């Protein structure tokens, strides 16, 4: 079985590339979805995170206020490391469970779409590593547009990750997504 690592920076275009893999009938495990499940009300991760960060991070319905928690952790590295440490066991076991389910169904190639592939040291499990790269200005603009966020919030999120150029230097395949969606489709078709 081949596990392809699909990574990049926030808003560099991983989800867009991941839908191209799905279009080619290659299944994708999305680490962001698994991380969201790990923080849903009453899950193991939720209980740990609420115990550590306090009830102020909760909405009226008891779910975690993701915007509020995001503001806290993306502007404070030690709080971010704490959140990462608390959720890591739930996220990694969720990822391996999803991969296992696809493997027993007989899939020979599976894509793991994970923004923190290198940061979480999961790069040793994947080959090839595909990095979706964009230039910094395009990344900032797309992130602000997509999330309707301020420049400060967007910069904090970008700075919370390993630099995109460093990720690019460790890639087996680089897909440049600075151009149009059509250009991206062409880059993808050249690589796959
Ligand atoms: C802080 C949280 C609640 C903010 O939620 P929000 O809905 O605003 O963002 P979302 O989860 O959709 O993430 C958007 C992007 O932010 C980046 N990001 C998320 N968590 C982190 C992190 N801990 N460090 C660096 N970048 C991160 C990723 O590029 C991700 O694609 C959430 O991101 C979270 O629980 N993060 C910790 C879990 C994690 O590490 N997730 C990454 C997947 S492995
Ligand atoms: N080539 C492109 N031209 C214009 N907009 C694009 C292009 N590629 C992606 N986008 C847009 O940029 C934003 C970020 O793309 P996408 O959501 O695929 O990134 P991502 O890497 O999956 O982000 P995250 O790390 O937050 O999950 C989205 O709004 C998407 O529609």
What does this entry look like structurally?
The model has no long low-confidence stretch (mean pLDDT 97). The protein is α/β, with parallel strands linked by helices and 192 residues long. It is globular, with a radius of gyration of 17 Å. Helix content is 53%, strand content 12%. It has a single domain (2-191), classed as P-loop containing nucleotide triphosphate hydrolases (Rossmann fold). The chain contains 9 helices and 5 strands. The protein starts with a strand and ends with a helix. A 5-stranded parallel β-sheet has the order 2-3-1-4-5, with helices on both faces.
Q: What is the CATH-assigned architecture?
A: 3-Layer(aba) Sandwich
Query: What does the largest sheet look like?
Result: 5 strands, parallel
Low-pLDDT stretches: none
Summed over residues and divided by their number, the pLDDT gives a mean of: 97
Helicity level: 40-55%
Binned strand content: 5-15%
Number of domains: 1
Bound molecules: dephospho coenzyme A, adenosine-5'-triphosphate
């Amino acid at each position: 079985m081949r596990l392809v690592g699909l990574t990049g920076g926030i808003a560099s275009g991983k989800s867009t590339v991941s839908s191209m893999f799905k279009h080619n009938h290659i299944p994708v495990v999305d680490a962001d979805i698994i991380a969201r499940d790990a923080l849903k009300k009453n899950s193991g991760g939720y209980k740990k995170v609420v115990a550590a960060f306090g009830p102020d991070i909760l909405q009226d319905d008891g779910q975690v206020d993701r915007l509020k928690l995001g503001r806290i952790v993306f502007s404070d590295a030690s709080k971010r490391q704490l959140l990462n440490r608390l959720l890591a066991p739930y996220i990694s076991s969720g990822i391996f469970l999803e991969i296992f389910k696809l493997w027993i169904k007989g899939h020979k190639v599976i894509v793991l779409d994970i923004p923190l592939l290198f940061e979480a040291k999961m790069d040793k499990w994947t080959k090839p590593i595909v990095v979706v790269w964009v230039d910094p200005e395009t990344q900032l603009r797309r992130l602000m547009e997509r999330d309707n966020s301020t420049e400060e919030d967007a910069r904090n999120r970008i700075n919370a990750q390993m630099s995109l150029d460093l990720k690019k230097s460790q890639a087996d395949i680089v897909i440049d997504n600075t151009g149009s969606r059509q250009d991206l489709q062409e880059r993808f078709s050249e690589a796959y």
